[in-house]
Write a structure and sequence with these properties.
two-stranded antiparallel ribbon, mainly alpha, transmembrane helix, oxidoreductase activity, 75% helix, NADH dehydrogenase (Quinone), cell membrane
Length: 394
């Protein structure tokens, strides 16, 4: 259903579906524009193989856990993600976001009999709620200024937002949604949650859930708050660059399969943030073509990462159930025992390594090209920020 909705919306105009109106909270409206549709499409492309894999994978837990409950949690989690991406008012968005976060906690905490699982799940939940508090403050500031909780009304009033309010909303929203996206410096929950989560939950976590943080950043700073602030773009660019380099450095020394993939998620979310930061800078400097180029690179890389990472997490689950270990040092020669699994891992790794002709190469090449456009910008400080980000990316 999400795939159909996304494909239909990508080819049409924005649609709105008013559901009900509450005197205290305003009107609850569902709708989708092309930004929502892109994230819905990514969600659907990841969800289909995850559910197909879960049907067989969850049998591994049948002796200890209620597998029907895990499947139900994943289904409701997917529904909450769809609602989060299509809600067009502040309170509806925050409500569906909290439902999604709670279901994500339940999905990760499925193997609750293991000693490490409750602690990892709690860390993830606390981090998520801390980020949600910042999101709440940012959205309430926008709603108070607009005099409405509807996203369309907030966007229409953005031109009259003063610099102080704009900066407050940017800082609160970027670092609030950055928690869910696994951006620096709030990415520590990812390598804790992934090793204890079932493989399907990990695939949804890195293939879909972290994308919602990116969605929130783009929705507020490119739609609800279209204010020219080049310094804000520089912050996003450099935060993404530092997160990317930290993620890849930790990944190079990791030997636990799923924890390595978690650090890779941190790296790739940093790359996506770099593209968003570049887009914000170009837009503020009245370079719409370069801004579109950078944003397209970021969203395309988000798609490629989601496909590759969900494929690799499902492969990690298959390796674990087949061999009983995720220690990479103990998995030598696996290609002879499971050649088909080695093939899927190879495809996922090629995408993450940005090797041609994979989509990962296309998105990272486009991202590099957008960073190189900084040579045509006048401010030396902005050029320096691009140089630092490009050096860290290399």
């Amino acid at each position: 259903a999400l795939l159909v909705a996304a494909a239909q919306t990508l080819g049409g105009d924005v649609w709105l579906l008013p559901l009900w109106q509450l005197p205290a909270l305003g009107r609850l409206t569902l709708g989708a524009d092309r930004l929502s549709a892109w994230f819905l499409l990514i969600t659907a492309l990841v969800a289909v193989p995850v559910f197909l894999f879960s049907a067989r994978y969850l049998k591994h837990y049948a002796a200890q856990y209620r597998t029907a409950g895990a499947a139900s949690i994943q289904l409701f989690l997917l529904a909450s993600i769809g609602l989060t991406l299509t809600t067009r008012d502040v309170f509806g968005f925050l409500f569906t976001w909290e439902i999604m976060s709670a279901l994500c906690y339940l999905a990760v905490n499925f193997e609750h009999l293991h000693d490490a699982t409750p602690k990892a799940g709690l860390i993830m939940l606390v981090a998520s709620e801390a980020g949600a508090l910042l999101q709440l403050l940012a959205l309430l500031l926008l709603a108070a200024h607009a005099g409405s909780t509807q996203f369309d009304a907030i966007a229409a009033s953005a031109a009259s937002i003063g610099p102080g309010l704009a900066w407050a909303v940017f800082v609160l929203s970027f670092f609030g949604f950055g928690v869910k996206a696994g951006l620096f410096p709030s990415m520590g929950w990812l390598p804790r949650a992934h090793p204890v989560a079932p493989a399907p939950a990990s695939a949804l976590l890195s293939g879909v859930i972290v994308n919602l943080g990116i969605y929130g950043i783009v929705r507020i700073n490119a739609d609800l708050l279209p204010v020219a602030m080049p310094a804000a773009g520089v912050i996003v660019l450099l935060v993404g660059a530092f997160g990317a380099i930290i993620g890849i450095l930790y990944a190079t020394i990791e030997t636990e399969f799923k924890r390595l993939l978690a650090h890779s998620t941190i790296e790739n979310m940093g790359l996506v943030a770099m593209g968003i930061g570049a887009a914000l800078i170009f837009r503020a400097l009245n370079q719409p073509v370069f801004a579109a180029m950078a944003l397209i690179a970021a969203l395309l890389h988000l798609l490629n990462h989601s496909i590759a990472k969900s494929l690799l997490f499902l492969s990690a689950g298959a390796v674990d159930t087949t061999t009983g270990t995720r220690d990479l040092n103990a998995l030598g020669g696996l290609i002879r025992k499971l050649p088909w699994l080695a093939g899927t891992c190879l495809v996922g790794c090629m995408m993450l390594a940005a090797l041609p002709p994979t989509g990962g190469f296309a998105s990272e090449w486009l991202l590099i090209q957008s960073l190189l456009r900084s040579a045509e910008l006048a401010p030396v400080s902005v050029r320096l920020a691009f140089v630092v980000a490009g050096a860290l990316m290399a």
